[in-house]
Amino acid sequence: MIVLPDGVYDAIVVDAGAAEPGPGLTVQLTIIAGEHKGGVVAVTADGWPGDEIDLLGMPATLTVEAGEPKVSIDS
């Protein structure tokens, strides 16, 4: 896993599962463009849309501000 500098990154969901310890889901994203292309990051949060299986392969936008990640699943 990598730590990304602040910025906006195009990504795709490559894995999702229950967070341990819960609650929430841990979603692994692969960056698909730019300097960090191919890097994998994990984000854990509550409130993911849909079932974890439904997230696999979905495009996403990862925004990192002040070191804090925010993910939006693109539909």
Explain what you see.
A five-stranded antiparallel sheet has the order 3-2-1-4-5. The chain has one domain (7-62): OB fold (Dihydrolipoamide Acetyltransferase, E2P). It has 75 residues and is mostly beta strands. It starts with 6 loop residues before the first strand and ends with a strand. The relative contact order is 0.32. The longest helix has 4 residues, at 52-55. The protein contains one helix and five strands. It has one helix at 52-55, and strands at 7-18, 25-31, 40-45, 59-65, 68-73.
Features:
75 residues; OB fold (Dihydrolipoamide Acetyltransferase, E2P); 1 helix; 5 strands; 5% helix
Morphology call: globular
Count of DSSP E strands? Answer: 5
Please indicate the count of domains. Answer: 1
Spans of 5+ residues with little confidence (pLDDT < 50)? Answer: none
**CATH architecture label name:** Beta Barrel
Query: Mean pLDDT, nearest integer?
Result: 90
Rg estimate, integer Å: 11 Å
What portion of the residues fall into strands of 2 or more residues? over 45%
Main β-sheet: number of strands, strand sense, barrel status? 5 strands, antiparallel
Helix content: under 10%
- Overall structural class, as computed from helix and strand content, comes to mainly beta
Distance between the termini: 25 Å
| Helix and strand sequence | EEEHEE
Output the number of helix runs. Answer: 1
Task: Give a short overview.
With 75 residues, the chain is mostly beta strands.
List the helices and strands and how they pair.
Layout (H helix, E strand, L loop, with lengths): L6 E12 L6 E7 L8 E6 L6 H4 L3 E7 L2 E6 L2
Antiparallel strand pairs: 1-2, 1-4, 2-3, 4-5
